Predict the structure.
Amino acid sequence: MNDSPSIAQKETFSPDAYRRLVERLPVTMRPSLNQQLSQWELLFPFEQNRLVTFMNGIETFSPSGLDELTAPLWALETKMGVKRWPFSETRDTIENASQLARSAYYAEWRREMQRVFEAVNAAARDSAPVETKSTRLVLLILPGYLPVDLQSVWKQWDPRGQVIKMSGNSERLCELAIQGQPGMDGIATLAARQGSRESSDLWLIDADTKLGGMLSPLAPISASSLSFANLKPFRDKFVAEVNTIPKDIQGADEVLVKLRHESWDGWGLWPAEIVNQPRLRSFIIDLYLSGNGSFNFSSAFVEWSASEALRRARPRTIVARFGMRSKPKPFTSIAIFENQQKVSTLPDVDDPENSAIDAVILARYAWLAVCRYPEQDHTLCLCVSEHLDSAYAVLPAGKSLGWSPDRPVAPEELYSWLGAQFLS
């Protein structure tokens, strides 16, 4: 399904007027804002609304008020010699970051940037309507084939959480969450009742191919569906292109721009669930260029995708399913962007024990990513170990399980409770 325009895009977005506003700002504030304006169609609704809100915040200042606010940053840029730099005002580049980091005034510059942004954001918040707070869900699945250790699986988790004992087939919970059951819709539909039906509001992120097949084509909400397994043909080609990046900074910037603007359609490598979603394709490219193991390890891909989805889209619901990885091959195939199958003739061998350890750690990292944002206060996080028929729940303030933690609960009962959290 194609991405639909957000309310901000249809009613508020004024690129020419915003670019004129950007021209009134200090030089070092311009690259990021101009890049977002030029990539407007590829931003998620949350990003679009945040950009519009920031621009509206600038507009609340009179010309003299904006000059007074930004005067210290203008003066600092003069001391840094920014006008003499080969500094791009149209986009963030490695060269820009390098120039700033080498300046003796870098720490002071960061403080001034933070001060200006905080002032503009505060002005924007004062003039923005108050939003209602709906319950959000992060459902993390440790699949049954990962031999998770009962003694350590929940040890490092948020101490506010509670262990839930599950009876019956715990794998059933994931199916119920997406598909629902007779007389009760799936989480996707429940979330749509209280939020947007836009695809960026529901993310299905899978090491394998299981989650995408659970969502019915007739479901009343579309999803951003990512599968590490389905992306393999594209990933292999993309890795090869990334390895053409030259070693000098200027050349690297040029190649990165090329990679981001390449349509990739001619290769026929995009999975069916992504091929008609340009915003999601752009997300994948940015994800891979940021690294974090998402090239080589399925669970790293799941965790980093979830973290970036939270940062950029603030979805109502994320269902993330971790997975198996092979035993590592020669060191360089992990340390840099390389295709492990091509750099080593050794066969792939599954590594279930260490994959389980990775998945437990990375699932907790996904929850820690939630904790960076205000939405944490009304987010319900449920991590399920199918191997142990055990789960760990971190609840928003004012929410409770409604049963004794010592009593095992069936997947159907746990799902009904999840649904009640959305509708309460």
